[in-house]
Amino acid sequence: MKSLLRHSLPVLAGILVLSGLFAQTSALAGSYLNAAQSDPRALGWMTGFPPPPERLIMQPESDFFSFPKLRWTVCHIRELMPTKRVYRGITPLTSFEYALDAGIDAVTFTPLGGEKPMTWKESLSVNYTDGILILHKGRVVYEKYFGCLDGMGKHAAMSMTKSLTGLLAEILVVEGQLDETAKVSSIIPELKDSAFGSASVRQVMDMTTALDYSEDYSDPEADIWHYSKAASPLPKPVGYEGPDGYFEYLQTLRQDGVHGEVFAYRTVNSDALGWIISRASGRDTAHLLSERIWSRMGAEQDGYMTVDAKGTPFAGGGLSAGMRDMGRIGLLMLNGGKIHGQRLFPEEVTKKIRAGGDRKAFAEAGYKTLEGGSYRSMWWVFHNGHGAFAARGVHGQTIYVDPAADMVIVRFASFPKAENAQIDSTSLPAYQAVAAYLMKRDK
Amino acid sequence: MKSLLRHSLPVLAGILVLSGLFAQTSALAGSYLNAAQSDPRALGWMTGFPPPPERLIMQPESDFFSFPKLRWTVCHIRELMPTKRVYRGITPLTSFEYALDAGIDAVTFTPLGGEKPMTWKESLSVNYTDGILILHKGRVVYEKYFGCLDGMGKHAAMSMTKSLTGLLAEILVVEGQLDETAKVSSIIPELKDSAFGSASVRQVMDMTTALDYSEDYSDPEADIWHYSKAASPLPKPVGYEGPDGYFEYLQTLRQDGVHGEVFAYRTVNSDALGWIISRASGRDTAHLLSERIWSRMGAEQDGYMTVDAKGTPFAGGGLSAGMRDMGRIGLLMLNGGKIHGQRLFPEEVTKKIRAGGDRKAFAEAGYKTLEGGSYRSMWWVFHNGHGAFAARGVHGQTIYVDPAADMVIVRFASFPKAENAQIDSTSLPAYQAVAAYLMKRDK
Q1: With an 8 Å Cβ cutoff, is B72 touching chain A?
Q2: Quick one: which of A42, B112, B241, B249 has the most CB atoms within 10 Å?
Q3: What InterPro entries does the record point to (chains A, B) (predicted)?
Q4: Are residues B370 and B288 in the same domain?
Q5: Is B88 domain-assigned?
Q6: Do the beta carbons of residue B332 and residue B339 sit within 8 Å?
């Protein structure tokens, strides 16, 4: 067991970070280099032919997801792992209109739990921002790149991937290809004896399944380690006899409690949902995302998803994509399934998501920066006055949609700590301040 | 040693096939399923959620490059290995004009060493063609897809990658950024004590270096095994103490004989050239290919290259790309560096390549289907009446450029055997017959 762990740990770390499961451990760490100090260009990662040993980022020894290497890795996932493309096709590019507003930099807000005001511009480095895009009334009013990212680059979306998996599921539900009230076992018989078997599709979509699932990193037998070993795309170590791949792993999960009562953020729900939508549609998550969204939204670039050793896309955290393309996802959500004059899916899809999930079940999870919110079809719904909702991924990834302000914000980031609770204090109020600024400006 | 080999073999096989080094071993095999029988869609590789065990293609056990799995793998390299993109950028797409000619299917030719004539159409399945494109006077006159490929897909270019590495080198030479007469050691001091140190850049470009290099697969200490282990993108097995990556491996090669006398096709020359052009340009091969060619030729898709464990692109065989984009490479070579009305590099570059290399040195290598030819800057020059030349990769990959007929043919294929000598008999005369047909038609 010990040797298996030693062999697999670096890969595990990657998968864990992608899926947000390293939140607790990362939070234990101390102080970090600031954004300028940890800029991957300044640190010279992977430069030179060959890069000198102290500038190499590779598996397995160097733990490519550790900070500050993380700040390079988030733009280079495919160079470290096998991936499957999310294709835009070879249709003509569709460009955004620009109406840049230099006044946004000076917008001020007070961080949650803080007293001293901060400017929008200051928040970007505080949050280790790699890319930030603000769309207002469909036009780009703000767009900046830092760290490893540029306008032609791609960045790990981390758990924002879940929201796309959830969106695809909701599309299939609204179109009648997937019954959200069905028991999972009726769609995936292989999951009959697992915790998922007795859950409904909707409970999986909203992460209210009751799973016997431990993320205690100090316990080498915790479920999270089994999950990570199963999901690794690398060949399994000699002697490994556990499940291979997401689908085999999901069958091993046991139930603990009653489904539908409590929201519990577990990436395995997204992988189960990926399986469900694949069975329902006959396409894997990457293929379905390509066919339904990416190839029809005027995407500028292909995206890609990491895969397990059997080629299964990581529906819970594997997507990397360009920032403006994530902006197009935000516009689709903002505008009820329409973008660039095309309707991609029925408006009912976003209506259901924006209505939110079970707020009582959500409250049980105790998210301090998201009080009063809910989780619906793998989107975070704030239930605030603007009807805002978001895709969120560890280390600061977000698509923040504010319908009242006709605004979408995309942030790619590489904050040293995984957990968004740390990042929310200087991002959520900043988003609200920009929304207020734009609404006031346009009056 | 034995256990290291067992652990690494499947990956090695992949790298070997990509680089064409499995030619000899594959030739030992017997009869194969024909093109229709081995069609990867018919065989159902990687279909289902999950694919049943007998339909899985993965590392390490199943040897993803073995025939007939090979026929799926050639379109899915990135799903099995880490890769680096060759970016097209986000510039507008440039489409080809079409002037399809259904008469081409009926063009007949006599296979080399054969007696019975064959039609062009018949040759496609005989050669396990995955995609075939004929450009004449800059327009598409023929375009078909089979097997794993379609018009939005990508296919392994195998050793055609070498020709792009050679093209980039020739561009740097003509532009004065690289001295083809310089000793390699003056550009890469790390290679001073290796076989390459005393060779000139030109000798590396033309593969006339004299290397003490064994490809005897029955000898577990043959150089080819060391090369493959070094190049594997997977974490090195416990206990491995050899070189890690292309750059470290190249330093271990020893000289045997006098440089410049004999052409000997060794992939390591391309990797050495990749290193040379990276040092000279400050960009790795994938980056340089993006910057100088891919982002400026109106490419429809990004390409990508496999990488070693340190992120070094495989300059000798790692490229995957769309077929029409390979057609653009052919047009650039045909039209002296111009495409879609843009000049990408000086005409002198293609003039030098098309003039060919040392025919006497080439004759020593004994290529029966290429008698009278030569190898220049990693392009195969036929020295025939049409001034034809080609990029070639194992299993039937080619960009065939015929200046007299103003024609470019691109073929992607997954012929069961690696060696092109087997494929040439039903492809080279077919290309010549189509050239004659088009010239006669246009008279």
Answers
A1: no
A2: B249
A3: Beta-lactam-related, Beta-lactam/transpept-like, Diverse_Enzym_Activities
A4: yes
A5: no
A6: yes
